[in-house]
Structure formats: structure tokens, C-alpha cells
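Here's a chain:
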Amino acid sequence: MFARMEHASTPAPRPAIRLAGIAALAAALLAGCSSAPAPGPHATTDAPITQSRYFTLEDEAHAQEMVLFALGLLDTGYRFGGRNPEAGLDCSGMVAWIVENISGKRLPHNAAQIADRTRPIKVNQLQPGDLVFFNTLKRRHSHMGIYIGDGRFIHAPSSRGSVRVERLDNRYFAPRIDGARTLIALN
């Protein structure tokens, strides 16, 4: 019923060819993880090279989701180093937790590092879901929050507080604003 296979007629693969194939496959996999795809035949290269270095959300709707998630955290207790609502949150932990839950992407748990990895915008360009940074400890980007619109932002303020909404023109925060960032890619 079954034909007998003749193994002698099929030469065994040579080790050098097999190793070369494995090396080529490994190089292709590594290249796919560490670089952007090659531009297509109609791709333009007018976009600034620095754009690719910024952390961005895949979908502009995620910015609105950030606002909703943040509002859902109102009155969550503050905890220095906190990165989840059950244990408490600090300012950068709140932002990192929200972004990770919305996008699956992870931001650092440090306001200054988040500022370095996100695209700067002017404060007057803030849109809901953008990030606002403050100099509260005599160093840039020592505090942050999520802009929710109408001149307001939500943040995890300090060990004496909980997640709450403040106004950008608040007499404490207004002179301490030192930057705004967006997670939305340039179009």
C-alpha cells in the first residue's frame, strides 16, 4: 500500500548551508524588531527623522480614552512610586498606568523621562489627552498631569492628596508650567 521511501537518494543538507540559513533567518527576525520597514516605492522622506523617536499612541481616539481613564481615577490615593490604583499612584505612575491600559505600550515611571520621550507642543496647543509638565521641585519636569480640556488637568498631587482636577491658571501651578507634550503622531 505505501511506497517505501528511498532515503539514500536524498542528500542530507550540509551543515554550512543549514547554519547559513539559520543565520539569515535570525538576522531577518532581528532586523524586523529593531528597525522601521523600508519605504515603499511611493513613500516620501519629508517627515522629520526625530518624529520616530517619540512615543506615540496608535489611535487618536486613545487621547480621549486617557481623559476618561484619568477621570475614573479621581480620589485615588497618592503613593510615591505607585503605579496602580489599588496601591496608590504618583503623577508619572498614573500617566504610565493609563497609557499602558489603553495602548498596551509602556512609558517610563518618571516624569522627566516621559517628557524626553514625547513630542513637545506649545501650552496653547494642548488638547484633551495631552500631557502637561511642571517644575515643582526646582527641576524641570518634576511633576506632570493629563490635560482634560477647558484649562484643566488631572494629576496625582502629593502624599497629602489624591488624584484630582486642577486649573492650569491656578496660582500655584501657572508659574510652574514648564512644558506640554502630546502622544499623538504628526500627520
Confidence is low (pLDDT under 50) at residues 1-50. The radius of gyration is 24 Å. The longest strand covers residues 143-149. The longest helix spans residues 15-34.
